[in-house]
Amino acid sequence: QVGQVFLYFQWDSLLLEAGFLAVLVAPLRLLKWRSTAWRAHDGVTFWLVRWLLFRLMFASGVVKLTSRCPTWWGLTALTYHYETQCIPTPGAWFAHQLPVWFQKFSVVATYVIEIAVPLLFFAPIRRLRLFAFYSQVLLQVLIILTGNYNFFNMLTIVLAFSLLDEEHVGRWLGRSKRKHASSESLAWPPSLRAVLSTLLELSTYGFLLYWSVQCFGLEIDWEKRLLDSKVAFTYHEFTTWLRAVTLPLVGLGFLSLSWEILSAMYRCACVRGCFWKLWATLQWAIFATATVGMFAISLVPFTYIDYESNGKLWPGIHQMFNAVERFQVVNSYGLFRRMTGVGGRPEVVLEGSYDKQTWT
Question: Which site among 148, 168, 293, 355 is 20 to 30 Å from 104 CA-CA?
Answer without folding.
Answer: 148
